[in-house]
Amino acid sequence: MEYGVLYIDDEINNLNSFKAAFRRDFNIFTAQSAKEGRKILDTNEIGVIITDQRMPTMTGIEFLESILPVYPDTIRILLTGFADINAVMDAINRGQVYKYLVKPWQNEELKMYIQNSLEIYHLRKENKELAQKLKLANMELEALMKSQ
What we know:
The protein is of the alpha/beta class and 148 residues long. The termini are far apart. It is elongated, with a radius of gyration of 18 Å. The protein is 53% helix and 18% strand. The protein contains five helices and five strands. It has a five-stranded parallel sheet, with helices on both faces.
């Protein structure tokens, strides 16, 4: 299954550049606001979220932090035009960000991070499914032992 990659940025030119650069390699979704991004998340399986930090109404970190309880396995990347050490620390501590990148991005570098992120997401999903199967098998085994 191909998981989606969601890029959120309030600048339409950045969204268009991102889509043009990566649409052949990934299943790309774009949103111009956190609210739009949340709608996409709620209706598609997104493996990687890339968000700009400085946006009106909600920062990238605030958005990533807000979706953590519902989408804990989605890999998060913060992309910003400003290298702000406090934003970096917040991204790591509050938004549990996998990568913090400064604009303008390098296509090959970002492509590699997206590929790695999708692989991590897939492994997390697989791990959860296997853990669930193991839990069910253990419950069945316990029930079998009790019945004997």
